[in-house]
Design a protein that fits this description.
Elements (H helix, E strand, L loop, with lengths): L10 E10 L2 E7 L8 E2 L2 E3 L6 H13 L2 E13 L9 E12 L8 E7 L13 H9 L3
Parallel strand pairs: 1-6
Antiparallel strand pairs: 1-2, 1-4, 2-3, 2-7, 5-6
Amino acid sequence: MSFPAPPTRPQLAVSGAIFRDGKVLLVRRARSPGKGFYSFPGGRVEFGESLQSALHREVDEETGLRIEILGLAGWREVLPATGGDGHYVIMSFAARWTAAEPVLNDEHDDFKWLAPHELGDLKVTGGLMEVIEAARKLV
């Protein structure tokens, strides 16, 4: 079996810090990159797709939730040298839950709604707390 060659350019991605009743949604990645780490729902932006459309699509595919996007909460760059499988530029948005309950696809194996102070020693992806703090100011 042959695997596709890794991308030769950075990949653009989006993620959403989704808040509901003062709590943020975290999903645990079921596979690499980031297997076992909690993060936000999100993924790659498709060619010709706006960042907001990509976030709505990714959140729907990964969780089934409906959201209202409130604004950009930050960005993060993941380089292959930092343990990722590729080079990603992730635009992270603050969002508010509007409908549905989480139903995870096969990319994730757990979810939690947590108040930011409840994260404790939870295994989270790099830069997550900074994005949560920035997103809280937009909610």
